[in-house]
Design a protein that fits this description.
79 residues; mainly beta; two-stranded antiparallel sheet; globular
């Protein structure tokens, strides 16, 4: 938890171009809290755990005076 809000993202949530290989999914960059500071983790291409899985990005959520990270997850449409 952190009382200071994370900075604005350093990149858009959109991929920088087409995937390097067919079937890969873009996971956007995000701010990571380490001790008392935020550090930027760049977005990256990953192979989904199953065909058709979609990445739902995590986000920083304000809860009272603090900010907490709500992790992203894989969504399986049609399941």
């Amino acid at each position: 938890m952190m009382r200071l809000a994370p900075p604005a993202p350093l990149e858009s949530g959109n991929p920088p171009g087409p995937p390097p290989r067919e079937g890969m999914a873009w996971v956007p960059g995000r701010w990571v809290l380490r001790g008392p500071r935020y550090y930027w983790r760049r977005g990256r291409w990953v192979r989904p755990p199953a065909p058709g899985a979609l990445w739902i990005p995590g986000y920083w959520d304000r809860r009272g005076p603090n900010y907490v990270w709500v992790p992203g997850y894989w969504h399986y449409p049609g399941r």
